Amino acid sequence: MTGDTMKSKLSAALALLLVTTFGAGAAQAQQTPRPAGGGLVPLLIESKAFPDGGIVPGKYSFRGGNVQPDFSIANAPANTASFAIIFHDIDVALGGNPDDVLHWAVWNIPGDTKQIEEGKLPAGSVNGKGIRNNEYMGPGAPAGPRFHHYVFEFYALSAKLDLPTTASRPELLEAMKGKILAKAAYVGRFKGEAAPPAAAPK
Predict the structure, then answer these.
(1) How far apart are the C-alpha atoms of 172 and 161, rounded to whole Å?
(2) Which helix (H) or strand (E) holds 126?
(3) Which pLDDT tens digit goes with each residue over 127-143?
């Protein structure tokens, strides 16, 4: 066997070994499960007021009692220091821009919170500036052919936020960057009731 033949066979064997090794590694990498959601653990949110995706009763609407719904929080990461909530109507675009209607923004809900009672927040929570004021504003969509979709976004954060009560959604989103441990959304649908027909003149 000549030296050139020997070199050729050795090169071929080495190439086969490299292909086999890296091919097996790639196949193993493809089979290795990755954390869902890019590593973010999903929070579990429930409410006795209405089911997720259900119709919001008038009691919790701006056109009714404007009562803040209750929420229970589970499956939060162990190192959660606080929670934040952003509540908005995603079926509206204001002024020709992509911004929708912010109904409620709240942060610094204590990280050990398991239950948010109806009509109130845990001590230490901070209400930010919504479209009207610094408090919960329920759904207020008018009567029409379809429901508006209202989303409560819940964030579990690794720290409390140093924000003034004059802050609104843009400042809150900026302050949360790099601190979000988990997130969940809870959706309610709402539309106003049509006015009853006017009584016929007697």
Answers:
(1) 8
(2) strand 126-127
(3) 999 988 999 999 999 99
**Contact assessment for residue 69 and residue 61, using Cβ atoms and an 8 Å cutoff:** no
Cβ neighbours for 148, distance < 8 A, ≥ 6 positions apart: 89, 90, 91, 92, 139, 141, 189, 190, 191
For 164, the token pair is: 């003034």
Q: Which CATH number fits domain 37-190: 3.90.45.10, 3.90.280.10, 1.20.1740.10, 1.10.3720.10?
A: 3.90.280.10
- Shortest CA distance to 91 belongs to which of 144, 149, 131? 149
Report field, pTM of the whole predicted structure over 0.90: no
**Measured CA angle at 187 (ends 186, 188), to 5 deg:** 130
